[in-house]
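Quick check before the chapter quiz. The format below is the same one you will see on the exam, so make sure you can read both the input and the output lines.
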Amino acid sequence: MRITKLVLMAIAALAAACSKQEPPAASSAAADLVFKNGNIYTVDTTKPTATSVAVVAGKIAAVGNEDDTRALIGPKTQVVDLQGRLMLPAFHDAHTHPVWGGVNHSGCALYDGNSPEDYLKIIAKCAAEEPGDGWIHGSGWKDGLFPPDGVPDKKLLDAVVANRPVAFTNVGGHGIWVNSKALEVAGITRDTKDPPNGRIDRDKKGEPIGSFQEAAVELIVGKLPPPSDKAREQALGYARDYFNSNGIVGWHDALVPISGADPGQAIPPGVPQTYAAMAQKDTLKGHVSLALAWDTKRGMEQIPDLLAAAQKLADVGVAAKSVKFLLDGVPAQRTAALIEPYSDMPGFKGEMHIEPAVLKDAVTRLDAEGFQVHIHAIGDQAVRTALDAFAQARERNGAKDHRPLLSHVNLISKDDLPRFKELGVTVIFQPLWACMDDYMVLVGARVGPARMEHMYPVMSLARAGGRVAYGSDWPVASANPLEGIEVALTRRAPGVTDGELLAPEERVTLEQAIESYTLGAAYASHLDDRSGSIVVGKSADLVVLDQDLFKIAPTQIAKAKVLVTLFAGQPVYGELTAVSAAKTE
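Here is the expected output.
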């Protein structure tokens, strides 16, 4: 009797299971996309290479060979023959300024100029195309084209535009160049005092020469007409499309002022509202995280404002639980903070924009509130001070998965290298800067040959167990990851095959460079659980190149082209049909 009951129960269970009207497994799992016949580098140590990938509902459903994906091909599956092309995880940019960059590139841009004469021709053309008496402004001049100090003079601008104000920020946003009319409109005279953490460049008589550094930039930027809501959205759309065309589907906007904040750089106001508007329209086409700007003119009282801004953005799906500090400046104008004095100015070590004790307290408090802290630190003293602040936060709050970030980091003291692993700090390097260009020649004159031997110490940090992510700092430099990868391997400018190398022992491998632009950068933005590598369950964020980076010379990498970029399984740049087209060698 007991056995009969058990049998009846089993039969009933089997009948119940069979009565569920589930579709066949093959139909329910049919892929939207299957890529086959590829050279796929996954950035996954457990399965680094593959030839086929399947995508279901925007996520990666299978990674392996064609036997692993064949069962997922259904009647509506689009099968793309990669024909041996290289597929990588789509790139991330761990440090960029999309709205600022988009505004600058859509206005009077100097980025294509390669001499002061080029700049003056562009500015004269802009003045002719926009007649009137209003401001002419833009960005993009390179410090290295104005030796010996990287500081241009107002007289150059006066010669082409004398009767209306002109203002142009440099590529880094840490300096601005104006004409005499702009000085007049802004009310800047020899009696105007340098603001805290800023400098008005002057001649021997104390007269302003037309250039401003660091916080003094705001004396001019505050007079410029801000971009409209529409202009900011157009700028972010421009940046998004530019990123997608370069294989980028994730970015960390590295300095976003909240209402009323002054970050000390030429970042336009209203950026949070721009992201919120585009997120609500579902037009961002990428993974986005924002670093809200710490206002150096305020103190701890701004933290509730930062929390409120972060929550408001989170409510519309934009991650903004990061806060950015500008701790020092740049070495070319001797505004970076060094442990030892500048080689060409004995006794002077530069200055930090924030008192170390204030930084420690702010970082500790923000860490306790759940923020990721992101610090601009270029000189080795600024780097050490930032690490000290992270150490105090860990000591008081305990180890948390907040992933503190240091950006740029030109120099690291050898004694500080082990601390990055100990404190879980990720360094965001700009690999495209790690070559002997005009700017780096200026830097070499400032810091001397011994420190230049370890400029941008990427490999030294990696050997010490530190985490590395790559970011472009666009529009300061090109956002093209392929150009950055080439320089990371060669330590020369893209396409250059001879000449002086910048700190050649700091070169990395191709695998390391790719990881820093994919999984490493995704990690920096807390996105590594969903993007940055080709792993089952992650978002189908993929890029297909026209050349296999593993089969060409490092000096040819920057010439490779993105054929198609996919975000969550959807092409956001290029056409899948073009990938399947016959290859031409």
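If your answer matched, good. The longest helix spans residues 2-19.
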